[in-house]
């Protein structure tokens, strides 16, 4: 089946796949430098971060171990409440290890803050975050993110792993979803 034409569903392409790959390569060089000689466990939160994770680890020149968590936000399925339930926990023990959390996008920061707190209680050697996208205007809880791909405007975006109703994840670049698709109000605001 062909990927449905999504041009009429989006208002703007913010970053092409090539731009995203180029920026990820720059971040990978920083991460290689910062973690030289260390054992790193790279953790992605399903599902949005799978594209960033798979592109990042293949760009890295060191042996990166990976693991996954799935969480669900209490309350509305699209709005972040910061109260989170673990749907799938890590397979690995992280005590004493260097943990790098890979995120698709940081919006309010509530989910990520909860996750950092949860992982910190397990006694890792360190925790840092790499986020492909961040919306500085949407932040409700400040969160310390060491590696940021791009800061973007406060709009609802899809592609590169990010969905609307589970759709658009496999759009290759990052695009602003047209409000006519979701009927006006930003689904995540
Ligand atoms: P936060 O807790 O930072 O508000 O949001 C966490 C999650 O909400 C992100 O990992 C992502 O899954 C989703 N999210 C936030 N903003 C957007 C957006 O603009 N588009 C999409 N598709 N998902 C978003
Ligand atoms: Mg996420
Ligand atoms: Mg989503």
Automatic annotation (TrEMBL):
One of its GO terms (molecular function) is nucleotide binding. Pathway: Purine metabolism; IMP biosynthesis via salvage pathway; IMP from hypoxanthine: step 1/1; Purine metabolism; GMP biosynthesis via salvage pathway; GMP from guanine: step 1/1. GO terms for cellular component: cytosol. Its cofactor is Mg(2+). GO terms for biological process: GMP salvage; guanine salvage; hypoxanthine metabolic process; IMP salvage; purine ribonucleoside salvage. It comes from the Bacteria. It catalyses: GMP + diphosphate = guanine + 5-phospho-alpha-D-ribose 1-diphosphate; IMP + diphosphate = hypoxanthine + 5-phospho-alpha-D-ribose 1-diphosphate. Residues 18-164 form the Phosphoribosyltransferase domain. Belongs to the purine/pyrimidine phosphoribosyltransferase family. This is Hypoxanthine phosphoribosyltransferase. The lineage of its organism: Bacteria, Bacillati, Actinomycetota, Actinomycetes, Micrococcales.
């Amino acid at each position: 089946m062909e990927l449905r034409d999504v041009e009429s569903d989006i208002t703007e392409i913010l970053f092409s796949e090539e731009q995203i790959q180029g920026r990820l390569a720059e971040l990978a060089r920083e991460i290689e430098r910062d973690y030289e000689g260390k054992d790193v466990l790279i953790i992605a939160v399903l599902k949005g971060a799978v594209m960033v994770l798979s592109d990042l680890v293949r760009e890295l020149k060191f042996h990166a171990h990976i693991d996954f968590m799935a969480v669900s936000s209490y309350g509305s399925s699209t709005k972040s409440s910061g109260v989170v339930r673990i749907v799938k926990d890590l397979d690995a023990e992280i005590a004493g290890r260097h943990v790098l959390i890979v995120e698709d996008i940081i919006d309010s920061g509530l989910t990520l803050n909860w996750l950092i707190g949860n992982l910190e209680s397990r006694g890792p050697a360190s925790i840092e975050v790499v986020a492909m996208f961040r919306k500085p205007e949407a932040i409700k809880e400040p969160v310390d993110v060491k590696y940021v791909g791009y800061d973007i405007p406060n709009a609802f975006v899809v592609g590169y792993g990010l969905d609307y109703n589970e759709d658009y994840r496999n759009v290759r670049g990052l695009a602003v979803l047209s409000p006519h698709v979701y009927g006006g109000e930003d689904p995540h605001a």
